[in-house]
Write a structure and sequence with these properties.
three-stranded antiparallel β-sheet, single chain, elongated, about 375 residues, 8 strands, mainly alpha, disordered N terminus
Length: about 375
């Protein structure tokens, strides 16, 4: 008996036989091929190699479209429905991962087992994170659904998602935070200002880079997040990448954030003397500081302070954690961070320190525990 869904059998002569679809004959019937191994593992490895090496000439029906062509159609279908940055992300994933694996296949030859092999390939061969692999598999599933809706070449295929375990997020200790702030306040320049402003507001790196002077309300003591800045793949002519200013990550990411006195004092002078359309970090309407420049500088700053494992998103996690520690209401914090729901805030951005946990545990003493 074969193992479920694998089409691998143990023969009477003791060998293992794996069967795979080679293509479609002129009469419309499926053509199968076989490979053999002394063990189940050997047969399975050979079977996977045969399936991956299937080329157009090995298929009888040469007029059928390949999966790579459907990928291109799907991209065109999506182009007008998503942001340019999202489209660039789709294009890169398809060219780097999906096409090299599935491109030569006819859609009808793609099976649930083959998608499982692809998932294994992404994580263990390409060594992508579970989150990145999951994003690519979601894209593959969408392409297969697109093909299924436009042709009968694809049957019911299950795309198995890898188990995603979120990495432990780095949060600055209170002592590290104070040391870092003291460093940034000394001889402050545009980059130090951007880093400190992010720490005091919880804004994402692209949101900080895209801020204009007019986004700061000195009267209301608020900052309005309207855009984000990204460097993306250039799908046209010219340079390989380009800078784009787009709407924030999601609808809830476009928001108004009240400023603390510290944050307000940081940007009052800049916002007051710059033209409204000037970038807050540079004071220029044409010159800007892009995200990777801030990433480079925050690495330098953290090394100078003796702080390890530091990157820009640590500032956002630290801001959220400090907010919870002082009793910030979660729904309000979720809106300040631009999340679609408080659940995201609690699951991904709130990391209580041991000292904060200890303080809360002592509250039990009031009831005799």
């Amino acid at each position: 008996m074969s193992r479920k869904g694998e089409n691998i059998y143990k023969r009477k002569d003791g060998r293992w036989e794996g069967r795979y679809k080679k293509g479609i004959a002129g009469n419309g019937k499926t053509v199968y091929g076989s490979c053999y191994g002394k063990t189940y593992r050997e047969a399975k490895e050979k079977l996977e190699k045969y399936r991956q090496k299937l080329l157009p000439e090995s298929v009888k029906s040469t007029s059928a479209k390949r999966f790579a062509e459907y990928c291109d159609e799907w991209l065109l279908f999506k182009q007008s429905k998503v942001k340019e940055s999202t489209f660039a992300k789709y294009s890169t994933a398809i060219e780097n991962h999906i096409k090299p694996f599935f491109g030569g296949y006819q859609p009808g030859l793609i099976t649930t087992e083959l998608t499982s092999t692809f998932a294994h390939h992404l994580i263990y061969t390409k060594q992508l994170s579970a989150k990145t692999a999951k994003d690519i598999l979601v894209m593959l599933k969408s392409i297969l659904q697109y093909i299924s809706q436009s042709t009968n070449d694809v049957g019911a295929i299950e795309v198995a998602m890898p188990k995603y375990t979120a990495k432990e997020i780095r949060v600055l200790s209170y002592e590290e935070q104070q040391r870092f702030i003291a460093f940034l306040m000394k001889d402050m320049d545009a980059c130090k200002f951007g880093v400190l402003f992010a720490l005091t507001t919880g804004l994402r790196i692209g949101e900080v880079c895209a801020l204009r002077a007019g986004d700061i309300s000195l009267k209301e003591k608020t900052v309005t997040v309207r855009e984000t800045m990204q460097r993306i793949k250039n799908t046209g002519d010219g340079a390989k990448t380009k800078i784009v200013l787009t709407a924030p990550k999601s609808d809830t990411s476009a928001r108004v954030v009240p400023l603390t006195n510290t944050a307000f004092e940081l940007c009052r002078e800049r916002a007051g003397k710059y033209e409204k359309n000037a970038f807050l970090l540079t004071g220029s309407e044409t010159k800007y500081i892009e995200p990777r420049i801030l990433q480079y500088h925050i690495k330098r700053y953290s090394e100078a302070c003796g702080i390890e494992n530091m990157h820009f998103h640590v500032l956002r996690h630290t801001f959220a954690t400090r907010c919870v520690e002082v009793g910030f209401e979660i729904k309000s914090l979720s809106e300040v961070l631009g999340h679609s729901s408080p659940r995201i805030t609690l699951e991904r951005y709130v990391h209580s320190s041991l000292e904060f946990k200890r303080q809360n545990m002592t509250k039990l003493e009031a009831i005799g525990l």
